[in-house]
Write a structure and sequence with these properties.
It is elongated and about 75 Å long. Helix 1 (2-32) crosses helix 6 (162-183) and helix 1 runs antiparallel to helix 11 (286-315). The protein is built from 15 helices and 8 strands. It folds into 2 domains: 2-26 and 294-388, no CATH class; 43-251, Spore Coat Polysaccharide Biosynthesis Protein SpsA, Chain A. It is an alpha/beta fold and 426 residues long.
């Protein structure tokens, strides 16, 4: 029994070290990241903004369109199997309107709309995302000879709905990781809500069936992840500008938020497996590998360890508690000044008597867990500092959604190959 418990504890120790590595790496690198000064000779007139639209609330769409047309760029609204009322609003605002007869999804809409672009740069903008007044100019300044795509910093509009607080908390959590990855040279993903590309780089690809008909386990999403990988594969950099803050509308219901997160999680797992199989995963760098492996294995390891601990605690409570008690008694001597020798003698005694080293495993596990927990607290302290308004509500609801995300990740993994409808706009 001791041997089994020792194996469990050392597995827990290994994952504890992995957790500490994940948090400390992201904390350190995100803190070191600074935008370099950039100056561009490009002008907004060299940019075309494509806004695909389908079943969007007219108020939200109008706000998005107003912000887009104020940039000085050309704007094309593409109706995905729909026209009114979007056509009238677009024309009134000075935008060009195009549409398809049948709904084909976002990929198909972008694939068709790209053929109308004549400018050097193209921006893909969701119909519920508002960009600031100088977004196009500032994002253009990030382009250089080797930069193929630029995306902004995504924020969620807080509308006093619980869902908006949950979504904003998740975005601020991801921002630390995205900053750390940017320090390494590339954005993790050129976000689907808003991203700008060099037109000549992506035109043929976006206009092809390799993009418009690409599916993951029978579902058509992950367009932003695929485009990011394409840009990097072509030898260009993907850059995120954290100074440009765009605001996207939150999902209307908690159910829709969960469906959105399930879609994104499913995309993440699918691309993780895909990149590992084709050999591109490790080429993205150490931080990218650490972040993705941790995010997508955390629910699995946590569940497995909880099940093992619960099993032994339920069947052998006396045995389990006696080992914990002995380990804690020895551990106290580590933290009490002048008693390190007592601790070492107790460890030596355990070894010399031939007693299984379970107490040592428990002690190491507790130390590692203390370190990883401290790193976790620092990580979330930074998340809280990055939340600009209504911190208490955002953190409270964000903590609740993290629990839901844990369960959601496990469910998504177990149903990964099952074809389902994941869209939030049926």
């Amino acid at each position: 029994m001791d041997i089994v418990l020792i194996c469990i504890y050392y597995a827990s120790i290994a994952f504890g070290i992995f957790s500490a590595l994940y948090y400390t790496t992201n904390i350190y690198l995100s803190g070191k990241f600074k935008h370099s000064a950039m100056k561009s000779n490009e002008y907004p007139k060299n940019v075309t903004i494509i806004i695909p639209v389908y079943k969007e609330e007219i108020k939200s769409f109008s706000e998005t369109l107003k912000a887009a047309t104020s940039q000085g760029a050309q704007v094309i609204v593409f109706g995905d199997g729909c026209e009114e009322p979007y056509k009238s609003v677009s024309i009134k605002s000075g935008a060009v309107f195009r549409s398809s007869k049948n709904r084909g999804g976002k990929r198909a809409a972008l694939s068709q709309a790209i053929h109308f672009v004549k400018t050097k740069y193209v921006m893909f903008l969701d119909s519920d995302t508002i960009i600031p007044k100088d977004a196009v100019v500032r994002m253009l300044s990030r382009f250089g000879p080797k930069v193929g795509g630029v995306c902004p910093n995504i924020h969620v509009k807080k509308d006093h709905n619980v869902v908006s607080y949950c979504a904003e908390f998740l975005e601020r959590t991801k921002e630390i990781m995205f900053r750390a990855l940017s320090f390494q040279g590339n954005a993790m993903i050129l976000t689907g809500q808003c991203s700008m590309y060099k037109t000549t780089l992506i035109r043929d690809f976006v206009g092809s069936k390799d993009f418009s008909e690409f599916k993951i386990f029978g579902a058509s999403f992950g367009d932003d992840r695929q485009l990011t990988n394409f840009v990097l594969k072509k030898g260009y950099k993907a850059v995120q500008d954290f100074d440009v803050r765009v605001f996207t509308a939150p999902q209307k219901t908690f159910t829709n938020l969960l469906r959105q997160q399930m879609r994104w999680t499913k995309t993440g797992y699918a691309f993780l497996f895909r990149e590992m199989l084709n050999g591109t995963f490790w080429k993205r760098g150490f931080t990218y590998a650490i972040d993705n492996l941790y995010i997508y294995t955390l629910p699995i390891f946590t569940l497995v360890l909880l099940l093992f601990y619960s099993y032994f605690l339920f069947l052998y409570p006396g045995f389990f508690y006696s080992k914990i008690s002995a380990a804690l008694n020895a551990l106290i001597h580590i933290y009490v000044p002048g008693n390190l020798s007592i601790f070492l003698n107790s460890v030596s005694s355990i070894v010399n008597k031939g007693i299984p080293h379970i107490q040592i495993a428990i002690i190491i596990n507790l130390i590692v867990r203390s370190i990883s927990t401290f790193a976790l607290l620092v990580f979330f302290a930074i998340v809280i500092l990055n939340i600009k308004k209504e911190k208490t509500r955002t953190v409270f609801y964000g903590a609740l959604v993290l629990l839901a995300m844990f369960i959601l990740s496990l469910y998504t993994l177990l149903t990964l190959w099952k074809k389902q409808r994941w869209s939030t706009r049926q």
